[in-house]
Amino acid sequence: MKIKSQKDFFAGLMFVLVGIGFAWGATTYNVGNGARMGPGYFPLMLGILLAVLGLLVVFTSLVVETADGEPIGTIAWKPLILIISANLIFGVLLGGLPGIGLPAMGLIIAIYALVLVAGLAGPNPSLKLSLILATILAVGSYLAFIVGLKLQFQVWPTFITG
Questions:
Q1: Single pTM value for the model
Q2: What transmembrane ranges does the database entry give (predicted)?
Q3: pLDDT digit of tens for each residue in the chain (162 aa)?
Q4: What are the beta bridge partners of residue 33?
Q5: Is 131:154 a contact under the CB 8 Å cutoff?
Q6: Who's near 90: CB < 8 A, 6+ residues apart?
Q7: Which partner from 34, 95, 134, 160 sits 20 to 30 angstroms from 85, CA to CA?
Q8: How far out from the chain centre does Cα 6 lie?
């Protein structure tokens, strides 16, 4: 059978693989049943739903005709690396790396670093817009997680708060 839309085919394939991975991982928890759901029930159902949707997308990519076959373009390496790096930097700054002596920098600094690095991935990076977005996200995160939900985690670096 001929692939009529490469983009849809590989997107559907990715959905199927991620869905199967989630469903498989959920089986290590107690699944339970519909009346008494265990901690693995929701991820199992979500994984199955994602895999079924992926199969539907794969099927349509094989059946529905497209004008040019919707080929997959080249991989945008710069944005890919910057977005993944931004998330890794966020995690490292939020929790620190005790193995190398890097202390946790807290939520606010981690958010600013995340937004500034991820902002470089766009076609026209703007420091001003990145700082505005980081401020809005930092204030919103503080209000939601610290004030609203009363979660207990480090907001500022220890050298500032003591």
A1: 0.69
A2: 41-64, 76-94, 100-122, 129-149
A3: 788 888 899 999 999 999 999 999 988 888 787 788 888 888 999 999 999 999 999 999 888 877 777 777 788 899 999 999 999 999 999 988 888 988 889 999 999 999 999 999 999 999 999 999 999 999 999 999 999 999 988 899 877 776
A4: none
A5: no
A6: 110, 111, 113, 114
A7: 160
A8: 23
> Closest Cα to residue 53, out of 42, 158, 61?
61
8 Å CB contact between 134 and 116: yes
- Token pair, residue 148, equals 């609203």
32 strand-pairing partners: 37
- 107-119 and 77-95 are packed helices; what angle lies between their axes, rounded to 10 degrees? 170
Burial of 105 from C-beta contacts in 10 A (0-12 / 13-18 / 19+)? buried
